[in-house]
Amino acid sequence: MLFQEQASGEFVVIAELQPPKGNRLSGLYEQAEHLRGHVHALNIPDLDNAIMRLGSLSVCTLLKAKGMEVIFNLSVGDRNRLALQSDLLNASALGLDNVLVLQGDPPSLGDHYDAKPVFDLDVLGLLGAVKRLQAGYDLGGSELDGKPQFCVGTQIQLRTTEHDFDLEVIEMEKKIDLGVNFFFTPSVYDTNLFETFVQKAARLKTPIVAGVTLLKSVGMARYINQHVQGASIPETVIDKLMKAPDKQQGSIEIARETIRHLRPLCQGIRIIPIGWEQLIPTVLEQAGL
Fold this sequence. Notes:
single chain; TIM Barrel; eight-stranded parallel β-barrel
């Protein structure tokens, strides 16, 4: 279970692997084996960006059977409270003890834009459901015959002003009261801004895992700045990528420097490779991990 021994101060390294759009798992297994020994856990998204894919539950179960630590993702956008609670019990029965609770994406953003969103619960509601299940009761008040135990995480937003940071810390406190054991951030590009946020959140004493995305091109960086809420990639980073004769090497260098700046500020990182899974061991090695 992640962060079970967080007092040891060990810096946690997590890699994100997308499930396939289909049921052929050979490629994902190859990626996972390539990362064995390099990361502490694999984070497996569930219908990320509202794209229909193989689910987090089955992929996590299969990887767990291969001896890998995994993080099961569960989003409120696609299931009602019955299905959400049932999937949490499914996960526990299958031996999955790390769960990441997420808002999820509206179907209009994905490849089934005419699908109907659910959002029966919000994130706080699902966190409350997890807490109730761990206490031995469901949301209807019925007692469980056996109760699950999880290491519970959720994602926070990275904002751009000190006032916004204060609001985010208040939200984090609510989530900690509901049993959250760790937080994921979106991808961090401006480490100075992140440091300001971490100073605000330090009193919460709950592990924060910072996201690190491998930037594949200047166009990708520009798109993120224009369309991803809260993202702020400094022009110095974009300029470095623009001048790199080899874009893969340039991306590795940017990720390496980002991780080196992040390491003293948080309790772990989550690498989001977006198709460059083979580069993760090189990034970690060059970053001293």
